[in-house]
Amino acid sequence: MERGRTFVLKLETGEVLHEALEGFCADKGIRNAVVSVVGGIGGGSRMVVGPELPCDKKVIPLTITLDAPHELTATGTIFPDEDGNPMVHIHGSAGREGRAVTGCLRAGVTAWLVLEVVLIELIGEGAVRKKDESTGFKVLEL
C-alpha cells in the first residue's frame, strides 16, 4: 500500500471515537488508513480489556466502563468490512490519577474536551475485515 492523504481531526465532547472515524472515512471515500489518537475521553467510555475466562470455547469480550474522564493515547487501523464499510480497529491506554487501563476502544469511547486524531490514508487493495466463525469477530484478511 502507498501513502495517501493526511487528515487532522478534532472530535467534540461526546462524539464516539470509532463512529466518528468510520463516518469520516465513508464521507471522504477512505477505504484504508492508520490512525493516531491523543487527548481526553469521557467518563462512561467503555473499553474491551480482554476475553472472559475461560476462553477455550467461545470468546466473550470483557469490558470496563470508565468512571471519570481519562487521558488517552491510541493507535489503530481502518480497513473495509465485507460490505465495503470502513471499520476501525483501535487499541489504546487510558490513565487517571496514576492508574491506567489498556484495551480495544471499539466498545464505545467518547471524546472529552480535547481528542485529536491524525489519520493517514493508505492506498491499495486486498485488506478486508471478514467475520471469523470461531470468534464471531471481523478480523483482517490480506
Question: Can you walk through the features of this model?
Answer:
The chain is mainly beta and 142 residues long. It has one domain: 60s Ribosomal Protein L30, Chain: A. The longest helix is centred in the N-terminal third of the chain and has 12 residues, at 17-28. Strands 1-8-2-5-6-7 form a six-stranded antiparallel beta sheet. It contains one helix and ten strands. The chain starts with a strand and ends with a strand. It is flat, with a radius of gyration of 15 Å. 8% of the residues lie in helices and 56% in strands.
Structure summarized in a few sentences:
The protein has 142 residues and is mainly β. It is built from one helix and ten strands. The protein has a six-stranded antiparallel beta sheet with strand order 1-8-2-5-6-7. A two-stranded antiparallel sheet has the order 3-4.
